[in-house]
Amino acid sequence: MSTMRTLGEFVVENQHHFPHASGELSSLLGSIKLAAKIVNREINKAGLVDITGAVGAENIQGEEQQKLDLYANDKFKAALEARDQVCGVASEEEDEAVAFNKDLNKNAKYVVLMDPLDGSSNIDVNVSVGTIFSIYRRVSPIGSAPTQEDFLQPGHKQVAAGYIIYGSSTMLVYTTGNGVHGFTYDPSLGVFCLSHESMMIPKLGTIYSINEGNYIRFPTGIKKYIKYCQENVPEEHRPYTSRYIGSLVADFHRNLLKGGIYLYPSTESHPNGKLRLLYECNPIAFLMEQAGGKASDGKNRILDLKPTELHQRVPFVVGSPAMVDKVESFLEQYPE
Ligand code: P6P
What we know:
The mean pLDDT is 91. The protein is an alpha+beta fold. The strands form 3 sheets. The protein has an 8-stranded mixed sheet with strand order 4-3-5-6-7-8-9-10, sandwiched between helices. The protein has a 5-stranded mixed sheet with strand order 12-11-13-15-14, sandwiched between helices. A two-stranded antiparallel sheet has the order 1-2. Helix content is 30%, strand content 23%. It contains 9 helices and 15 strands. It folds into 2 domains: 190 residues, Fructose-1,6-Bisphosphatase, Chain A, domain 1 (2-Layer Sandwich), CATH 3.30.540.10; 127 residues, D-Maltodextrin-Binding Protein, domain 2 (3-Layer(aba) Sandwich). The protein starts with 6 loop residues before the first helix and ends with a helix. A hairpin with a 5-residue loop joins strand 1 and strand 2. The site of 6-O-phosphono-alpha-D-fructofuranose (P6P) has 9 residues, from helix 7. Pathway: Carbohydrate biosynthesis; Calvin cycle. It is found in: Cytoplasm.
């Protein structure tokens, strides 16, 4: 239910929670909000204009870049560079971190890491996709160019994180460490309205999200957990329901609202899993913990991991706390 409070008003009302608040967060989120509106407009036209499909190039991950991947990357970078809060960004679509060198960025205090359009291979088949962002205070001296250390901070140092889901409706969901709040976009007004204040995930859900096509390549503990989910135990609300869209933001958002767990484990071909620690797992983990859930690599808390590389991957288990605990117990019981 929309309370007719806009994102801008809500952020200003809660600005005092943001460390060293001086309107920086509202301006920083304002640039993300602007880029989200622009990307949303193009996604909703996809299919009508030549903006879908591949560009015939690959990103550093070796993944085929979609036209909208690059479009979204450009728009979010431009919006962040146009304000004086951000000194640089790291992106799934950029091999290296990008330093903003305009005078207005010189004294900026923050860096942003992002997956500008996660799940973009789904655009051509009209499945929800999303933008994921993660915000840190820089650790290098203000006034100098950002350094690798600014971007390789552990997830518990995030000052804000969130996502935009471009789905049946477009929503922006974010946290600054004081709860998770969701805003639904009203295109007729051009504003994001507060629709989900203080989102909390149910402690136990009945949805498990994993690509079971990889079953034979999963660790034994994951195979055991999948079979556990499928056992018929009515008093424990099992069997569970399998729901996997192939778009992290969409799977996560549904599980956040209804309760559930998302898993992208290690496999033989991807020993560190597929998802990237810095701009997928850390922001999603921050949101999940703020919503009362858990996020681990199957053993270690995601937010405690010390990053070593910009695009490093990590196995990922995120969702209702009791369900994450159960996965970790199976992995402990059946170590590889
Ligand atoms: P698979 C999209 O490429 C993504 O990064 C996530 O959004 C999604 O959950 C996952 O990969 C899907 O990967 O291997 O199951 O197709």
